[in-house]
Design brief:
- The protein is of the alpha/beta class.
- The protein is about 45% helix and about 10% strand.
- The protein is built from 16 helices and twelve strands.
- It has helices at about 5-25, 30-35, 50-70, 80-100, 110-135, 155-160, 200-205, 220-235, 270-290, 290-305, 355-365, 370-380, 390-400, 415-420, 430-440, 445-470; strands spanning about 145-150, 165-170, 180-185, 185, 195, 210-215, 240, 260, 310-315, 320-330, 380-385, 415.
- It has a six-stranded mixed β-sheet with strand order 5-2-1-6-7-8, with helices on both faces. A two-stranded antiparallel ribbon has the order 3-4. A two-stranded antiparallel ribbon has the order 9-10.
- Helix 1 (about 5-25) crosses helix 3 (about 50-70), helix 1 (about 5-25) runs antiparallel to helix 5 and helix 3 (about 50-70) crosses helix 4 (about 80-100).
- It is flat, with a radius of gyration of 30 Å.
- It starts with a helix and ends in a 12-residue tail after the last helix.
Length: about 475
């Protein structure tokens, strides 16, 4: 059995290859002569195809079939009958989609006789192919692999596991002598073999036919944890964690069992690519479209007090790293020279005397955030994600809310679930709840909803600002005196 990208590649190439072969078979004269003997179907006109027509028909058909079979490209453990029925349903969906296309005036639509013939061939071959490469569920005793760098936790996890623990996978830096030394203050031992390093995790899971992996990583090693979780996800292996070390990002609730399921599903690589493409397009188009506004803002800031146009800040990025962002300066120059990094009183609904008149307009309309589009282009930020804080403020919030670093599981964003709900750093606990909710629910569609709501709020705030300015302007008569 193959897994991971090899399985995805085998599944996709197999679907395309069998589709092209089925289409070529449908155009063979011998096959067509046999088909005309079938009642009802034999009355359909027989048609041949030129090389160009066949190429375009094959491209259309292979694309439809490949998309229809996308759910089967993930090597989830399935029984033979389940895999067969699933593949049959996906084939039927593909054939119906091709038949629907046939109703439109598409130059290279499949002739009805060709579609019926190719569909019958695919119905017989594709389910059998996916049955042959499927990941088989474990029969009998379940097999568990412990994965991680927290060596002192392995004995406790091993004792808590109901299934047969076939061994552990740990980074090369973790020595065998460290396993089972100290567990809860007692010297313990554990008699399970080392199966390899993290780079061989996929190979280990497949070769030992593991159906469960218990992750045991120290809190600082989030990147390795997510890498291991992604490997489990790609190969249909259930991921668990010990309840004593469970993270609110990884599991929704603790049900009293020593080992609990990790219900956070990593993004598929193709979704990550699409999200990155969206970030690049959004930021690139935004910077181009907003160029006139950027010029006006720069002139206004410079004319107001002659200070710098941009204000540079260090912010916390994914997994606790740092990066530098730029914002249009909305405060007086050197506003934090005496106070240091602090949360603005405006975030709590008050008035910050350091904010300039131009800065008030920029903050109300969110235009001060425009330069951060450049950070999105560079890949330091995403359009949607937890808003990055300054490292010094992160340290303060972490001392108040222990789980605060959980926000660093994903790339920070221009906007996020907390922002569209009006929650700022003045309420770190509530902000963290929204950020964790986003991490658990993140998807392309969820990102789209957040962006739409944020753009609507920006438009609403801009309209309110214009109305308030209009209300503050006195109504004057023809002679310039205010009307009473």
């Amino acid at each position: 059995m193959i897994g991971g990208w090899r399985y995805r590649l085998a599944g996709g190439l197999g679907a395309v290859t069998f589709t092209v072969l089925a289409l070529a078979l449908a155009y063979q004269s011998v096959i067509q002569d046999l088909i005309v003997l079938v009642p009802f179907v034999g009355d359909l006109p027989i048609r041949s195809a030129t090389v160009q027509e066949f190429a375009f028909e094959a491209l259309t058909t292979a694309t439809i079939v490949a998309v229809a079979f996308a759910p089967l490209y993930k090597p989830q453990p399935r029984r033979l009958l389940d895999t067969w029925l699933f593949a049959v349903r996906r084939t039927a969906i593909a054939v119906l989609a091709l038949a629907t296309i046939g109703y439109f005036d598409y130059t290279y639509k499949l002739p009805r006789l060709t579609l019926i013939t190719a569909g019958a061939v695919l119905m017989a071959t594709l389910p059998a192919y996916f049955v042959a490469i499927r990941r088989r569920p474990v029969d009998g005793e379940e097999r568990t692999v412990i994965v991680g760098n927290a060596a002192e936790r392995i004995p406790r996890i091993s004792r808590a596991a109901d299934a047969n623990v076939v061994g552990y996978v740990a980074p090369q830096a973790v020595k065998d002598s460290e396993i089972g030394m100290i567990d809860g203050g007692h010297v313990t031992s554990v008699d399970i073999p080392r199966l390899g390093g993290l780079s061989r995790l996929e190979e280990v899971l497949l070769s030992h036919n593991a159906d469960t992996a218990v992750l045991s990583f120290a809190g600082e090693d989030r990147s390795e944890l997510f890498g291991a979780l992604a490997v489990c996800h790609e190969n249909g292996v259930e991921a668990q964690i010990h309840s004593d070390y469970a993270d609110p990002v990884l599991t929704n609730e603790i049900d009293g069992e020593p080992l609990v399921d990790i219900d956070l599903e990593p993004w598929d690589p193709q979704d990550q690519v699409l999200k990155r493409l969206f970030d690049i397009c959004f930021a690139g188009v935004g910077l181009v479209v907003l160029t006139p506004i950027i010029a006006v803002i720069a002139i206004a800031i410079k004319l107001e007090d002659g200070g710098p146009i941009l204000y540079w800040q260090e912010r916390t990025a994914v997994f606790g790293k740092t990066f530098t962002i730029a914002k249009f300066r909305s405060m007086v120059p050197n506003a934090e020279s005496e106070s240091g990094a602090t949360i603005s009183a405006e975030d709590a609904g008050g008035t910050d005397p350091r904010v300039t008149p131009v800065g008030t307009v920029l903050r109300t309309s969110h235009l001060d955030e425009i330069p951060q589009l450049w950070s999105v282009l560079l890949g330091d930020m995403s359009v949607v994600g937890p808003r990055p804080e300054r490292p010094s403020l992160d340290a303060d919030m972490e001392s108040a809310v222990e789980e605060w670093p959980n926000r660093w599981f994903v790339r920070p964003g221009l906007t996020g679930l907390a922002q569209i709900n009006g929650v700022t750093g003045t309420d770190p606990e509530r902000k963290l709840q929204y950020d964790i909710e986003y991490i658990r629910q993140q998807s392309l569609s969820f990102d789209g909803k957040i962006v739409i709501r944020q753009l609507y709020q920006v438009l609403t705030d801009a309209i309110s600002l214009l109305r308030s300015d209009a209300a503050d302007t006195p109504d004057t008569g023809d002679d310039g005196t205010p009307n009473r």
